[in-house]
Batch of 2 targets.
Target 1
Amino acid sequence: MRKKYAAGNWKMNKTFNEGQILFSEVTNMVKDELVNPNVKVVMAVPAPYLSSFSKLINTDKVSIAAQNCHPKESGAYTGEVSVGMLKSVGVEYVIIGHSERREYFGETDEFIAAKVDALLAGGLTPIFCCGETLAQREAGIHFDFVKGQFTNALFHLDADALQKVVIAYEPIWAIGTGVTASSEQAQEMHKVLRDHLASKYGQEVADNISILYGGSVGAGNAKELFAMPDVDGGLVGGASLKSRDFTEIAKSFPA
Ligand code: PGA
């Protein structure tokens, strides 16, 4: 059975003290309340907090993630953080290719592909984000666009490597807007993407890959989304900043 994920993306929110409280609350609630052994809770916190917060983890149901990394091992890349650095402070997952990084920081598929390679070489799990704009959806090119993002950033991998990647489909029009894709829209895209993976790697490999949905996931809509056969969890922004809401999302998977 594919692994299921409730992944929180804090983005650029919370001071150290606020974050410490939130992180501890979620960890404790998840430890006490989450009973599904196939669900992993991941929290992607601001980079300065990674080292400290990784020590607050008191259950293997929770892992800590970074929100970005640089593909090079070391060197003159002011302000950047390498995979080895993240690994050395207990990070297990790294979000890459988020639409905010693609849009505001000009990240290309090629650069993201290099991050995928660096993470896999370092033994960390990439959470690879993809997704279309509203204009692309309205023009009817959304399936081809997101399939292209896969082809450009993932299809150089062999099957073993690909199966170490977690995918997050996040339609840009649904991020931070309160407009969630319907569970049917999410399922439709996830199925298209899984079929796209199957076309290159075969069905068995495609069936092993967790594809999360992101974009205004909350405690009120997670159950419906996670009930879809190809939706393996959520990448959650706003609602991951509230411990009770995020824990409820983690508990929203079918038994
Ligand atoms: P949101 O963000 O849940 O606030 O829409 C999701 C994301 O950007 O990962």
Note: The pocket of 2-phosphoglycolic acid is lined by residues 9, 170, 175-176, 214-217, 235-239 (CB under 6 Å).
Target 2
Amino acid sequence: MIREIRNIVALLRGRLNMWIIPLMIAAGVLSSLAEGVGITLFIPLLQNVHGNAHIDTGSRVIDFLANLFDAIPREHRVVTICALIFAAILTRAVLLYANEILYGWVGARVNHRLRSDIFRQLCAVSFRFIERNQSGELLNALSTESWRACEAVAMLIYFVISICTLMIYTTLLLLISWKMTLVVAVAMFVISRITRVIARRSKIIGEKITRANAALSDRMVEGFYGMKLIHSFGHEAHEQRRFDYASREVSGLFFKQGVTQGAINPIYEICAGTLLVAIMFNALHDPAQLSALLVFIFVLYRLQPRIQAVDGARTGLGALSTSVNEVRTLLDPAGKPFVVSGNRPYGALNNAIRFENITFRYDEPDKPALRNVSLSIPAGKTTALVGPSGAGKSTLINLIFRFYDPSSGEIFLDDQPLRSFQLDAWRSRIALVSQDVHMFNTTVRDNIAYGRLDATHDEIVAAAKLADAHEFIIQLPNGYDTAVGDRGVRLSGGQKQRITLARAIVRNPEILILDEATNALDSISEHLIQEALDMLSKDRTVIVIAHRLSTVEQADHIIVLEEGRVAEEGDLDRLLKNEGLFARLYKLQNRGALV
Ligand code: ATP
């Protein structure tokens, strides 16, 4: 329990003004105190309604309470006590409402902060981490687990308030009759032992729920993104079965948890009911203390839900602890790979991007994707990266962007290590048009403006014209304001590629990287775009990856990669003369084209 509370407090640190928690606890405790006062006032009220004169039961507390209003004239006494009871009820109601508002505020704030911090962490952490974790798991942490962790916070506050209330009521009971309180305490101890067993079981189910939720999120993500594939292979029934299995697991576990936690109430009802009957029976035998006993029973009646709440919160906190841990682990930077930004401001590239003895593995046991690579990409020129599939071309680009850092060796911008530059400043000068076309579910205009968020309409149109996208965009139902749908489903592959090209153009980057940027285009579009790219490439550092070797003929410098190594480099003439890998591939493709 202590560990769970510590975890929740650690989760809140820095995300919530901690003063609000004592405030909420104080409001909760004061509302209980108001109720306690209200209930206690029933002793003199009953005594005076019965019309008894001065009371002497032998119990100092009860006699004090019963005779508390003796100084007030008899005809005003009942009205005064009623007014005080009403004031207590009113105070409690106001404090309860204030607490509800505070609960709502804390809930909304913590929920937002957790979600936002998880998202920030996912944006900051290296790609390695995202790749190692299943997207369903991360999505589940971002949505369900953050919400459940927030529920744990509310439950903890409620738990503390309930404990304080319990203490107030127990004091009241002790003052009325310590003997009966002792009997009640023993009964409650027995009940709490039983609920502890339930709490343990509930915690185990809670852990299973977290895992099952993550698996279900995985199925959702894969279902959404793979829907076309599912349809095309006719695997709807297979996917439905897999989804239903994951969904049934979650429902079944929630049901199990409901059944487990639901047992607490009936157990209480039975024990508390038996206790009440026993006390009432006792009261009937001692009419002198009737009013005090009635108040005792009433306090006990009000106490019961509080004890239930404490046990319920204990069980709930156990069940939610997995979610709290999940969110804490995700937010904890320890053990996660981060790409650390340097401090040097980035100005401009004057000479070259240089790779010096770069070796890179995506994961430790994997074979290297790049092995001892040394090469130079000259500034203001077009460099082509060619080579068979899996040779390491995209990996090289990933390292230039610093999506990953090399396992060994160093990349230099002119003579300074790339790591020493401010990451944001460096990335802001590069634009990538890759083979993975990503569209946001918004308008064509916003998709292009993503390249530079403050781009004007004229700049967007100019970029679209250069990317040969303007013609088809103005024919869309709402032109530039047409929504492209989820991941651009309303556009063809070639149209999406042209929009991503326009996005890169509007950025006006110093370094333009084209990774198979024209592979989804027909030959007319490709020709048009190639002309635009040739124009854009003037006085700009351009890196082109293309399988179609005809598209790299214009490059100033060609680097041929094979199995993570530089096989050869030079201009077209030199490589053809070399009669190496490039010449073989080139001849093979040209023969294919002629056929
Ligand atoms: P293609 O022309 O097919 O795009 P490429 O030359 O760009 O290929 P890379 O994508 O750089 O090749 O891949 C180089 C090697 O690294 C391959 O063996 C590939 O399996 C591996 N690889 C690529 N991305 C990852 C990744 N995210 N995690 C682990 N291994 C990877």
Note: The chain has two domains: 2-331, 339-429+542-595.
